[in-house]
Design goal:
alpha+beta; 15-stranded antiparallel beta sheet; globular; disordered N terminus
Length: 764
């Protein structure tokens, strides 16, 4: 199966002598173009940059877009959109015209709309500044036109949310009294139309949760991201005048429109929206901050800086298949989804697994949900680590490590809150991060449970799915450590987070053992990981495999980091010796990895018995026990029953890591097939919402692992790829390495490894 290094060297020299160097890669081959308008927001196209996402579409001659920005949480922890903008030209070439075209230009990060009607031709270009929170709308026509712009808000009044609509906030199915989404402040100011949502110092779900979970005594020490948070923006009005307001209804939601008209009829028009988020005590101070942002605009420099950023982004990495091949769509959708992730490259908060920045009206995902465009299932400020992790793992090999910072900082900000939970409830050290975690570091109140048995441990979620599931944070600890291995990142600021997470497991499971009996460790002087949890599936587990694999791997990687303090190394080495071994079970006489030593029940449809394959990399190509891991994939009756490509399922990644070429291709091609929506990577809802970002992330990971895997210093090329299929890719490997391979007709056309010294580590 593997070619020798000598054979590879001969092939490479032969092709270099023939002058067959890489042809390069132009991402514009994946630009998406539509030749007709859309029916509604469900046929929208993403556009964004920095930490802003727009859903753009043309409907009945009007160009519309929704505005979303990272971190816009109200006092209920709903991730609110910032409104909808509607642009109409007069005369209008987009209304039943002779020609229509809407295109996403990946290389520039822009959406361009062309229209023609008779002799009138016009173009609308939308782009978002990567470095400043600014949206630009440019109108160009070959004849003078007037432009009407409407800012449409469904939050022109307070709205009471009931029933399933509260799934968009942190109360979910258990609201405590009336839940209300409060109205925005919207008014014409001297610089334009200003819109703002203010949390101010009003009671929020943070206050409710702190009281529910018995933390009032430390409340003054807890980080509260919702307090005094205000967000919104302005539509600049130098060339515009406000001409009135109007009410209307779009799909299921009534709205109020503030109508702006261009002061002149001319060939060129520009609409600029400046967004602003700030924690301030009042509206006046927020407005002053907004005006300060306006003063920093420099359109000429800003457009060039943004285009340069996108050009560098696309040059970092790529995966390309020849056009015309049946699997070309996999590479196209890989690139389109990577673009969606890049639209939150600099956000304060990580990209949400349940829709990212690109959700639209709820009924377009589920026709029974007649809710506002603010709705998404599984919460706004609530983060589900099992899902979030799949959004961020692919960024290592794509070279987008800088985009991982929002996710890492999310946990770092919450470290003190997580440590306070531990010290308050159990009087020992370490950070306890639960699954279904709020953006203030406490368990979601609905998942925590309002109807709890008297005397039930205050530190635990009273929840059949989530109880004792604490190990998911360790995947993000490992990602942080991997950024040091991959690109030499300085991770010193995150070492306290990683060490505190490990310390929790070390101390808490000895604490639990001492509560049950006289010994803190088992007969082998190892931790007794009971109760633990194999994801959300194997519950009340004894020595869960996913927990063992995570602790072993993170400890081993931490011990190899140059940022670990020498005086702490011995204690982490001692803890590593205290981690119990993974257990096995047999199917048909064949050894397989067990999900745990014992468990009480199966509660979900995950396969944590394969987590030692991914994400933990203990088993796989080039490693001992590969046959055992393959047998687990092929024979474990639970894993077989749970197998799927839907949503957060990661069977395609397991198959790739195990070198199961045909199976990996089957499942990854299903993952990356076109979504049942106009934009091909708006997958979902899966188990979550649309667009499903953990669906896309797991698809990216699977494709990357089919093409390149790393084991220690070794770099395995095409380990799970049908070598009869042509491919050209550039991906990142540890030790600040990039690998670009052009493979055609079963041969190496070119291979560029940087640094060159890493060529010796290539394995076929």
């Amino acid at each position: 199966m593997k070619k020798s290094f000598l054979l590879w060297l001969c092939l490479s020299l032969n092709h270099l002598l023939l002058g067959q160097n890489p042809a390069g890669h132009d991402v514009s081959v994946y630009d998406l173009t539509w030749q007709s308008p859309s029916k509604n927001a469900g046929g929208s196209m993403p556009c964004g940059g920095g930490d802003i996402g727009l859903n753009v579409w043309v409907e009945n001659g009007d160009m519309l877009f929704y505005i979303a920005r990272s971190g816009t949480f109200d006092h209920n922890n709903t991730l609110l959109k910032l409104g909808r903008v509607r642009v109409k030209l007069s005369p209008n070439p987009f209304d039943k015209g002779d020609f229509f075209q809407q295109s996403l230009h990946l290389k520039e990060g822009s959406v361009v709309i062309h229209g023609k009607k008779g002799t009138l031709q016009a173009k609308i270009t939308l782009w978002v500044d990567v470095f400043k929170p600014v949206i630009h709308v440019n109108v160009e026509a070959n004849q003078a036109v007037a432009v009407e712009s409407r800012y449409e808000s469904w939050r022109y009044q307070d709205r009471i949310t009931k029933g399933k609509e509260n799934n968009a906030n942190s109360y979910k199915w258990a609201p405590q009294g009336i839940v209300k989404t409060l109205a925005d402040t919207i008014s014409w100011q001297n610089k334009g139309l200003v819109f703002c949502h203010e949390n101010q110092d009003r009671p929020s779900v943070f206050d409710v949760t702190v009281h529910q979970q018995g933390l009032d005594s430390v409340k003054h020490l807890l980080y509260n991201p919702l307090k005094n948070l205000s967000f919104g923006g302005v539509i600049l009005g130098n060339a515009w005048q406000m001409t009135g307001t109007q009410t209307g209804k779009y799909l299921d939601t009534d709205y109020k429109a503030w109508i702006l008209h261009s002061k002149k009829v001319q060939k060129q028009h520009e609409l600029t929206l400046v967004l602003h988020t700030q924690t301030v005590p009042n509206y006046t101070e927020w407005l002053a901050g907004l005006y300060k942002s306006i003063a920093q605009l420099d359109p000429t420099k800003d457009v060039q800086a943004t285009q340069d950023w996108w050009h560098r982004f696309w040059e970092k990495s790529f995966i390309s298949f020849p056009q015309g091949t049946p699997h070309w769509f996999m590479a196209r959708n890989y690139q389109l989804f990577r673009y969606q992730l890049a639209c939150n490259a600099t956000g304060t908060y990580p990209t949400k697994f349940n829709g990212g920045l690109f959700t639209v009206d709820a009924s377009l995902t589920d026709s029974t949900l007649k809710f506002t465009p603010d709705f998404r299932n599984w919460g706004g400020g609530t983060h589900t680590a099992q899902n979030q992790r799949l959004v961020y793992w692919p960024m290592l090999k794509s070279g987008d490590i800088d985009m991982m910072k929002p996710q890492f900082d999310f946990y770092l900000r919450l470290l003190q809150n997580a440590e306070l939970r531990t010290s308050t409830y159990w009087q020992h050290k370490g950070a306890c991060f639960t699954e279904q975690l709020e953006n203030f570091g406490l368990p979601n109140p609905a998942e925590y449970g309002w109807k709890r048995p008297v005397g039930f441990d205050k530190g635990l979620e009273y929840n059949a799915w989530l109880e004792y599931e604490w190990d998911t944070v360790l995947e993000f600890c490992q990602m942080i450590l991997e950024t040091e291995r991959y690109q030499g990142k300085d991770i010193s600021a995150y070492i306290p987070l990683i060490e505190s997470c490990l310390q929790f497991f070390n101390e808490h499971y000895q604490y639990l053992a001492k509560k049950r009996g006289s010994k803190a460790l088992d007969a082998n002087k190892q931790l007794i990981l009971f109760p633990s949890s194999g994801a959300e599936t194997y519950k009340m587990a004894y020595n869960s495999t996913s927990t063992i694999a995570s602790l072993q791997t993170v400890l081993q990687t931490l011990l190899g980091s140059k940022y670990i303090q020498p005086d702490k190394k011995a204690s982490w080495e001692a803890m590593l010796q205290r981690i119990p071994p993974i257990r096995f079970r047999s199917f048909g006489g064949k050894t397989t990895i067990a999900p745990a030593y014992l468990w009480e029940r199966i509660n979900n449809v995950e396969s944590p018995q394969l987590y030692p394959v991914f994400p933990w990399g203990m088993y796989g190509i080039g490693k001992a026990g590969l046959d055992t891991a393959i047998q687990t994939y092929q024979l474990d009756t639970d894993a077989l029953k749970f197998r799927s490509h839907i949503g957060w399922k990661q069977d395609n990644i397991f198959a790739a890591r195990l070198g199961l070429t045909a199976e990996a291709f089957r499942l990854t091609s299903l993952k990356l097939q076109d979504a049942p929506r106009r934009f091909p990577t708006f997958w979902g809802p899966g188990y979550d919402w649309t667009p499903d970002h953990n669906w896309g992330g797991s698809g990216m990971i699977g494709l990357q692992e089919m093409l390149m895997q790393t084991v220690g210093e070794k770099i395995y090329l095409l380990p799970a790829w049908d070598k009869s299929k042509n491919v050209h890719f550039k991906l990142f490997a540890p030790m600040q390495t990039t690998v670009e391979l052009d493979w055609k007709n079963g041969q190496v056309q070119s291979l560029i490894v940087i640094p060159k010294a890493r060529e010796k580590d290539i394995v076929w």
